[in-house]
Amino acid sequence: AKQTGRSAIHFFTQELHNEIQRTRYLKTAMQQALRDHSFEVFLQPIVRCSDSRCVKAEALARWRLPEEGFISPAEFIPIAEDNQFIHELGHQVFTKVTQMLNQLTKSVDPDFQISINKSGAQFVQGSLPTHRLWPMAMKNLRLHNQNLVIEITESVLLDTAEEVNNRINHFQKAGFQFAIDDFGTGYSSFAYLARFPASFLKIDRQFIQQIHSDQQMQVLCEAMIAMAHKMDMEVVAEGVETNEQFKLLNSLGCDYCQGFYFSKPLAFHEFEDWLEKSAN
Ligand code: C2E
Ligand code: CA
Ligand code: CA
Ligand code: CA
């Protein structure tokens, strides 16, 4: 049936209304979840190409709502950022990660690394001084700062605010490593990349998913890998879903792969079971 202009507008305002309601609801629920420390942290394995061993993992925040189960961080992280909750949330994620590192560095490998996502808002002035808190917490737990990787996107590198740069430098001097996340999706600035000594370059999954169907994508991946290696970075391919993609990336010189082909993100006890199974 043909929609009149009036009912289209009605539909639109109704949608907008629902969205505002939803955001308001999530904001309130988030305050409670932070008080209860009920955000969870899942780990997704990162596998070394040369021997298929899992030597790293990415920490991903999870939020379980009573009526609807897990909701996506793509939905709740932006709300947390708009409401300054991202600082407390980020710190709770970090605390859980240190507990996991404490176990994994003992049971699996003293060099095991977990990476944590940090958005630009988490480096600005007025936010939690994590550049001071995190090194202290690591030291208290007798963890090495090298065991923690901070994932940032290119937009953070393009941020010229002095405070952002200072904090990043502070983390780097303390021995934390950095990974450039979602590489290739933003305004890739090679000049910034060359100046910023990241340890890892994570190629976004949009490239990986077309690596077989689109010859250009393979050429681009090959070029990104070569460039990263020239700049002394190691490469992590994101969103690897098939054995064919894994084999091809391995042949292109990629260092690490992450994706559903190996495992989806797992609760910590599931991750430990997965590690045990994959070691055999
Ligand atoms: P991201 O950092 O790019 O994380 C990778 C996302 O890709 C994760 O989604 C993961 O579940 C998904 N993924 C992994 N392998 C595959 C695959 O083979 N195929 C497909 N289709 N997807 C795959 P998730 O967990 O929903 O997280 C979404 C985003 O939310 C993350 O993107 C990250 O930007 C943000 N995020 C998650 N946790 C945190 C956090 O603690 N702090 C901050 N600041 N952001 C977070
Ligand atoms: Ca990430
Ligand atoms: Ca990513
Ligand atoms: Ca992302």
From TrEMBL:
Protein name: Sensory box protein
Span covered, complete protein: 290 to 569 of 574
Domain EAL: 23-279
